[in-house]
Amino acid sequence: MASEFQNGPDQILPAEDSTTTSPDVPVRLRIPETGKAIETTPPVSIPGLLKRTATDFPDHPALAYKAEGKWNKITYKEYYELVRTCAKAFIKLGLERHHAVCILGFNSPEWFISDLAAIFAGGIAVGIYTTNSSEACFHCANHSRANIIVVQDQKQLEKILAIKSRLPHLKAIIQYEGTPTSADVISWEDLLIIGRDQEDEDLERVLKTIGVNECCTLVYTSGTVGKPKAVMLSHDNLTWDALSICERLDVKKGEEVIVSYLPLSHVAAQVTDIYIAMMYAVCIYFADANALKGSLINTLQEAQPTKFLGVPRVWEKMHEKMMQVAAQNGRVKKSLASWAKSQALHYHLNRIKGVNGSGWGYCLASSLIFKKVKQALGLSRCTLFVSAAAPLAADIKRYFLSIDMPIMEAFGMSEASGAHTMCNMGSFGLETIGMALPGMKTKILNPEDGQGEICMNGRHVFMGYLGDREKTDEAIDSEGWLHSGDLGRIDENNFIYITGRLKELIITAGGENIPPVPIEQLVKSELPHVSNVFLVGDKRKFLSVLLTFKTDVDSDTARPLDTLLPSVQDWLKSLGCPAKTVTEVLEAGPHPKLLEALKESIDRVNQQAVSNAQRIQKLSILPVDFSVATGELGPTMKVKRNVVAAKYADIIEKMYA
Length: 657
What we know:
The protein is of the alpha/beta class.
């Protein structure tokens, strides 16, 4: 490259277009000529951002992880040096410019360090879902031209060893937990030794060639339909998105702690975590792999976060546990709790309507009840609760409102570098996904009755899909608008609402277009003991619904078990049809009293239908809940509608026979 473009890593490389499908082609940045300060903020690269933060906050903790029962902390200065050491090792092992380092494991300091080191070394960081099969891992590693693969442990290593011979670009495998059993697999300790033995010259030479407008990260979509696409994200996409999020969250420079909440290794959100932390020098505490089995509360109690972000499943599990505990309370405690909840719900619903003023009841309940609840959860210092990655049911949000924990919904997609909209404590609601983040723009395309496709614009919009020009042009139009595929509307206060999904529209035999997700959410809110709801009716004369009950989950395989949760068992007992397993529920056909309770709930949902075509007429209970392990859910917990429809085709046909 010409000498005038050797001023990286914060330089802007020459570019002809704002999109690309090649990993070595930079793009034009979408920086407006005029605009607010955040819109025109000078671009910064990933290496430039980490160096800046390490210089300004050298002794501030960056990462906190637990080992042998003790919390260990890595400062920003140490973090920066570890990333550089790892990057030098990657270069020594043969990482080529614009080739990938794939990372397969749960959240950990090693995951974050590997991700950043790949970028420092001129490569591309690629996170792979831990739930991926060997073949799914092969698609990601082969498609991204991986030179290096970093795995967590023996379990993940076996997936890579099974496909190793088919990866022509692969040069090294690193395992960061346990002792490698294969001679040609490098341990994390040995990787760092390799890096420390290298001089800085090669790394500095690579850093000088980096530009903020080139690809540094690939995020593979969850692949609910077809093979996952590789979302190409530039340095500016990621750092600018993190800046916008921090502005909305009102994060303070050097804020003490933010908890990493991702036991399922949601890759897109995990990447966002990295850059939010670096942008404002906050510390990330790592939740362990057993977070959803109960250990997350322990992490929260020890970390005492000031802000907490959770995927919907985190909030759902927390809700289930709290309901179980509440069920054990005596009459006096239940009455006191009911009074306190009514005070908090009244206060927060008034806030949503713009009516301020706490009142003595809310103040008393906050002091006597909610303070203790938050202490028990480890959230007594928390000033903001956020749900992201998938829709959170309104009834769950309503419950947390009633215990004085208003959850702020966020919305985004991998193609928008993580987040596009978010609520905050000054403006939120039960149904909205919030307003566009600072510097980001939203429009509703081809609205009918105020509803249309949600489209996004800004510096956070991705570069393109790796190697797929057709899909790139479908996603980003000629004016730079990213088409989300979600149906929505914007109200007079600029709050955005999702009302459906374009590709998931059910088109009935009568020709009516019906978005299934809002109806499914309504059913879940009416039936809190139901885990998943699946609306059926494409090319049919009427709508039906498939239901799964909440059950225990195998702690090793993450597969749903037959045993119903205690709260579901109690509910069935209260109906006069006790059962401990789904099998018992279905053995002789669902009990008439259970069917009556389900139909009454469906009737309440039908009363809210906007037309007769949107009324549910039949239901069936499925024998097992949905899960990632059994294939009905993708890695981001979105339902694979084609998989469910095919798997339960017989049950569906019986409803229409």
